[in-house]
């Protein structure tokens, strides 16, 4: 039998056991994984060095090498992450609500694991540990398919996880790695509805689009963030500057970073020269609309495509708008429904922005950078969903569960 | 521009307006639709007669003709259904939870419409009205694609809905029918991610599988129910008989009807002859396993495939099992994760069944037939989901919404 079917069957079988495992055992497994990662770090680093060397040999460089590379600090962070997950409350088993019907039936909604999660990701070996940790805690079995660049690292990590899970008495098949990293196998994984309940792609836009386009298994789309900060005519302009500087420059490579700033024409003349100078001083390239350039000529012109770009870099598109109507219209047209912010002191405009913007997270007077499982208080996340079904925003432990109706009867018939 | 893109754009535009429409206007629209359906029933029946005649001319008969046919009573039921939806509470706008973070950010989860719902269904014209009603109430725009058999009926109904919605001041594009019923157009509709947020197929297994297999738009899978009743060794056998009779015969053609009965070997000898005779007296064909036939020979033998069949008919597969372990294993292997019931007086076995069965609705001592939006107290439903993501079980108004995070800040940066 081939690897995919074999591992699919094992995962499905494990998922039934995992669904009713006590938090004590799951947390013990997470702690053992954490300890063993530290203890076996030499073995993991050795395997990782092979991956990195292979990548270098194939002419890969820059950010990809950085994402692929492990070191003691990164392994320590992975181990620490597992302890944090162990310390979180177990989402499984909570009866979210229960009610009684006139016929006496008592109907409850109980939180249960989804079942088998499939993860498809790229070069970052830490995803292997993060995803395993979150799936174990939420009672799901997980089938991991990392990028071929990281295969040696992933195999070394999985062998450590295997040992820890066996020691903790976890079901066989709880965490499995697909070792065949061929395109054909990943394509088949996307159609494995019989064994996989949900697929979560993590990586660049190309990977995510490919999974969305080709998967028949339901997908949680973690995604691109073309996020906006709208500086309203009634904004506190000092606050606006702090927020756009933070949203753009605190970590430009992540999905909740701002990519476009919209500025109300009422304050553009006063606000733009100062803020754009500050941003340029922080190495941000400004791409302005015509009205922006009429006020502040020392910047590049924005092309129509700029409004749709997720730069993930020190680049900001800037547009002067006629007011909140144009701002909302622009964002709903060009945004990716991720994180959007207004800076204003005006109650009505704050309410309108919150109500009318279609996005996972809508902010008044705060940086878009807060869209994050940790910052929201979820403790950990497997990604940030910008789809609307099932999970929207940070995908934490609760979002890795579903509900089942439990019904207590006394012989009722219909 | 072609019909699909044009209607997609209109629906998307309408969805932004609908998201913030007051319940008063939506309920008024539903009431006007209800009134006008009755007032214009002659026109609708006339159009329906053409569809029925066309179907008959093409040699279609039986159940399909019945599903296609409207009459005064059915139109009255559709109109009444809309009034019931109007009377339900509006799910939109509820802030499900809100909390404050240590940095002072106030984060709330607010219930909002999904956006644009696409419905793909077959010959039943009443789905046109039901789906429109549920989508309007939940603040969603809807694009309807009914079967070609019902096109004249659907056009007549849509023209009535259009008039009612215009009178009520609803946004243009709230409810639209795809008039081109070609296969090519429905295939393109399944890839219309830019405009459609969720697809809900309603109909036979073939239709649903085709949408699941081909759609890149997220799908809420309403589905097949291969439901089981397990009669435990500790069951009250009179109750067990009432429950299986109800689950099998009260309406065999629906998804929550039982298809297989599992009987604990401890009571098989006592229970089977009586209950199988009763069922046969109600015209139920029995397909028994070998052990069943050893006890009660007056029935057909069950083939291996019978355990996986959704008969939707007066047929019941019957299997003697060694106890609760085998019952749970059989159900998790052959069930479609819809509705499953145990009949028992034993506390431990009731708990095990509730915990270990993987299905949308798990019953102790009640008929599987209760899995229904009305019976659960949701008031109305657009179908019953047996997928795990987003909505599981009856899909009512709440399940037609999603959440968005609304975040109130005071200048917080990260």
Short synopsis of the structure:
The structure is a homodimer of 414-residue chains. The first copy, chain A, is built from 15 helices and 16 strands.
Structure commentary:
- The structure is a homodimer of 414-residue chains.
- Chain A is α/β, with parallel strands linked by helices and 414 residues long.
- Chain A has two domains: 3-222 and 390-408, Aldehyde Dehydrogenase, Chain A, domain 1, CATH 3.40.605; 227-374, Aldehyde Dehydrogenase, Chain A, domain 2.
- In chain A, 43% of the residues lie in helices and 21% in strands.
- Chain A is built from 15 helices and 16 strands.
- The first copy, chain A, has helices spanning 3-18, 23-39, 41-57, 63-68, 72-87, 126-137, 151-167, 183-189, 205-214, 237-249, 265-281, 290-295, 324-334, 347-356, 373-376, and strands at residues 95-100, 106-113, 116-121, 141-145, 175-177, 198-202, 227-231, 258-264, 285-288, 300-301, 315-321, 339-343, 361-366, 384-385, 393-394, 401-412.
- In chain A, the strands form four sheets. A seven-stranded parallel β-sheet of chain A has the order 10-9-11-8-7-12-13.
- In chain A, strand 14 (384-385) and strand 15 form a beta hairpin.
- The two termini of chain A are 46 Å apart.
Strands across the major sheet of chain A, in which order?
10-9-11-8-7-12-13
Helix content of chain A: 40-55%
Instruction: Tell me the overall shape of chain A.
Output: globular
* Number of helical elements of chain A: 15
CATH superfamily of the largest domain in chain A: Aldehyde Dehydrogenase, Chain A, domain 1
**Which range does the strand content of chain A fall in?**
15-25%
Oligomer: homodimer
Would you state the CATH class of the largest domain in chain A? Alpha Beta
Unreliable residue runs of chain A: none
- Return the average pLDDT of chain A rounded to an integer: 96
Q: Tally of extended strands of chain A?
A: 16
- Report on the biggest sheet of chain A: 7 strands, parallel
- For the termini of chain A, the CA-CA separation is 46 Å
User: Which pair of protein chains has the largest interface, and what are the residue counts?
Assistant: A-B, 65 and 65 residues
The tally of structural domains of chain A comes to: 2
Structural class of chain A: alpha/beta
Q: For the CA atoms, what is the radius of gyration of chain A?
A: 24 Å
CATH topology group of the largest domain in chain A: Aldehyde Dehydrogenase, Chain A, domain 1
Do you know the CATH architecture of the largest domain in chain A? Answer: 3-Layer(aba) Sandwich
Family (chains A, B): Belongs to the gamma-glutamyl phosphate reductase family.
EC number (chains A, B): 1.2.1.41
GO biological process, one term (chains A, B): L-proline biosynthetic process
Main location (chains A, B): cytoplasm
